[in-house]
Write a structure and sequence with these properties.
Distance between the termini: 36 Å
Order of helices and strands: HHEHEHEEHHEEHEHHHHHHHH
Strand content: 15-25%
Structural class: alpha/beta
Number of strands: 7
Largest sheet: 7 strands, mixed
Number of helices: 15
CATH class of the largest domain: Alpha Beta
Radius of gyration: 20 Å
Oligomer: single chain
CATH architecture of the largest domain: 3-Layer(aba) Sandwich
Length: 331
């Protein structure tokens, strides 16, 4: 796999040596998120929400992903993030321009825990506007006082516990729809292997800087396959099919470009590799419920198919299907 994608092989090999096979694809996705902000105009950017248990290399992989690029390509927002705080770092009068950068939110667990509900909602709304429209405007009495602009992507890390606690807040806006949410829990053998070789692994350094050059892409040739994967990703993540199409389009184009070539089958091999990271481990039946519904099964039959008693499980199935309809996953 990836014989025609030498930079991908380099990136995967680095993360695999340092953190193991489970982590390596997520490290690659973070590298691609940083690259996506810089490569193309008028193309949706690729954003990653990395969800894993505490102390399983969320911050470390973000930090290592940045080493492939110059510091001018990303902004480390830390954990105490406000829209005004971001704007003030680049403010000139009533304007602030971030340019083309990836916004790194290292620990959204702390961010969400320390902010009040209203502050949290303002931040989510502001980041959503910036990610979707490239512009956030602060105003009072309809008078614009500050405008923040930028062609940005974003990487955000969060513990599994925090994700479950804030899931409804994230889903209540279109903010979550703009991220590819990836999950993992490290298997015990990989944890033990890392602990046994901790000092050696800490010394593994990346000295490769990726050179980004946009390459001409024939998107029409691959549109049907993109749509098929968007449908698949939509079911697995229970997110809008249109939103998933935008994300994987940005992912495929960026992956081809960092390897200095046109789109080929290897870019879709990457999508196939990512599939296993899309299912929320605390709600593993959600994709199955949606799939069975799309196959024409009734709520009762879905319960039976999953080995559950309809009288106690049908309410959950109905709730999953209702949310899937609200999010544009099914009709």
């Amino acid at each position: 796999m990836f014989e025609n994608s030498p930079n991908t092989m380099t990136i995967l090999e680095f993360f695999n040596k340092k953190y193991g096979q489970k982590v390596a694809p997520v490290g690659l996705l973070k590298v691609l998120s940083i690259a996506s902000a810089k490569l193309y105009n008028n193309l949706p950017k690729f954003n990653v929400l990395h969800v894993a248990p505490s102390r399983q290399f969320k911050s470390a992989t973000t930090r290592d992903a940045t080493t492939f690029f110059p510091k001018t390509m990303y902004i480390d927002l830390g954990t105490d993030v406000t829209m005004h705080g971001i704007a003030e770092r680049f403010r000139k009068g009533r304007e602030a321009n971030l340019g083309k950068k990836c916004l790194l939110i290292n620990d959204a667990t702390i961010l969400f825990k320390t902010k009040k509900v209203a502050s949290k909602e303002r931040l989510i709304g502001g980041l959503t506007a910036l990610l979707s429209d490239g512009e956030w405007i602060y105003s009072e009495r309809q008078e614009p006082l500050l405008t923040l602009r930028g062609e940005v992507s974003s990487i955000m890390n969060m513990t599994l516990e925090s994700y479950q606690r804030n899931k409804e807040t994230l889903f209540s806006s279109t903010f979550h729809e703009r991220f590819l949410t990836v999950f993992y829990t490290l298997p015990e053998p990989e944890i033990n292997e890392w602990l046994e070789n901790e000092e050696e692994k800490k010394q593994i350094l990346n000295n490769i800087k990726l050179k980004l050059k946009p390459t001409k892409q024939n998107m029409e040739k691959w549109k049907k396959l993109l749509i098929d994967y968007a449908k698949r990703f939509s079911i697995l993540s229970n997110k809008s099919r249109i939103g998933q199409f935008d994300l994987i389009k940005a992912l495929v184009v960026t992956h081809a470009s960092i390897n200095n070539r046109e789109i080929n089958q290897e870019d879709f091999d990457l999508l196939k590799m990512v599939e296993e990271y899309l299912v929320d481990p605390l709600a593993p039946n959600e994709p199955k419920i949606i799939q069975y519904y799309m196959q024409g099964l009734s709520v009762k039959d879905i319960c039976l198919k999953l080995g559950k008693k309809p009288e106690s499980y049908k309410a959950y199935v109905s709730r999953v299907l209702r949310k899937a309809k609200e999010r544009g996953v099914i009709w």
